[in-house]
Amino acid sequence: MRRDRVHSTIGSNTIHVSPQSRRRILRSLVAVLTIAGFSACGDRPVSKEQYNQLLSELDSLRGELDELRNGPERHLTLGKQALQDGRFDDAKGHAAAVLRIDPVSPFAEEARQLAATAQLKLDKALAAMQRKTAEEEDEKRASIKHLRKDYDAILGITWYYHESSPRYRNQRSAIYLYFGVWDGRATPGPPRFTIEYVSSDWLFVENYTIKADDKSFSLHPGGGEIETDSGIRADGEVGIWEWLDAPVKDFNMIRAIANSAKVVLRYSGKQYYHDRTIPASEKKAMQQVLLAWESLGGTE
Q1: pLDDT 10s digits, 235-292
Q2: Taking the CB of residue 144, how many other CB atoms lie within 10 A of it?
Q3: How far is 35 from 275, CA to CA, in rounded Å?
Q4: Helix/strand/coil (H, E, C) string of the chain?
Q5: Quick one: which of 187, 192, 292, 166 has its CA closest to 250?
Q6: Quick check: pTM over 0.90?
Q7: What is the CATH number that goes with domain 145-295?
Q8: Where in the chain are the domains?
Q9: How far, in Å, CA of 35 to CA of 154, rounded?
Q10: How far apart are alpha carbons 175 and 161 in whole angstroms?
């Protein structure tokens, strides 16, 4: 009758030894006993190489026995912790280690349950990630529908603006993003950031400060970057308009503006300043322009 398993009692602990483990231990024992036998013979002293081999085999044997005695419980404990931490692949790995060491140990059934639970949670996490990715892709595609296009035939550029952004510099105070796609190119160029100030009195803006929730950003444009004009505003009144139109250099700032609950923009002039709270509509428009830019292949 075939015996698939043997029981070895060491100290007060009973170790269940699988055939594979038994063969590994027997090989180690044969090597140890062989070298020890040489040592016992006066005419066959043990060389340094044989002695080192003996120590190596003993260390390996100790490790094998420790893994057989304590491995299943140790891996099961680590697997449970991994499951609790959300490291589902690690939990499965520890469960597999329990079954590899001893598939019929007292910990085997619990290890199988651990593996099944980890796989279930892994499948749910993967499905949630796939849903989120699909939703993000849908949102990107939908964001393009909120853009209007202006084609510059001389430069060969199609400019994309949010449908709600001002069409004219003298229309209203606003901040917004837009970007262009050159003829013959598959992806858009860097987005541009525009800050407009429209009023009845000059500020002669020199710099800007943006407070987005608990984050602050400062913009100090170089000479000539802030442009000005005056005349009849889009609403028919006499007024002035001052604006900055520049490529985006700080995406962290742009995303902070688009995603913060409260954003205040300060236009700092030569003598006076003006604070403006950015409405939710402008922040949402910035989010959608960024998504559209990314969906068309734009990268930071």
Answers
A1: 999 999 999 999 999 999 999 999 999 999 999 999 999 999 999 999 999 999 999 9
A2: 16
A3: 88
A4: CCCCCEEEEECCEEEEECHHHHHHHHHHHHHHHHHHHHHHCCCCCCCHHHHHHHHHHHHHHHHHHHHHHHHHHHHHHHHHHHHHHCCHHHHHHHHHHHHHHCCCCCCHHHHHHHHHHHHHHHHHHHHHHHHHHHHHHHHHHHHHCCEEEEEECCCCEEEEEECCCCCCCCCCCEEEEEEEEECCCCCCCCCEEEEEEEECCCCCCCEEEEEECCEEEEECCCCCCEEEEEEECCCCCEEEEEEEEEECCCHHHHHHHHHCCCEEEEEECCCCEEEEECCHHHHHHHHHHHHHHHHCCCCC
A5: 192
A6: no
A7: 2.60.40
A8: 6-125, 145-295
A9: 90
A10: 12
Q: Which of 92, 95, 120, 115 is nearest to 105 (CA)?
A: 95
Chain position carrying tokens 């060389």: 47
Q: What is the CA radius of gyration of the chain?
A: 36
CA distance 175 to 289: 12
The residues, ordered by sequence, that sit 6+ positions from 257 with a Cβ below 8 Å of its Cβ are 175, 210, 212, 263, 278, 283, 286
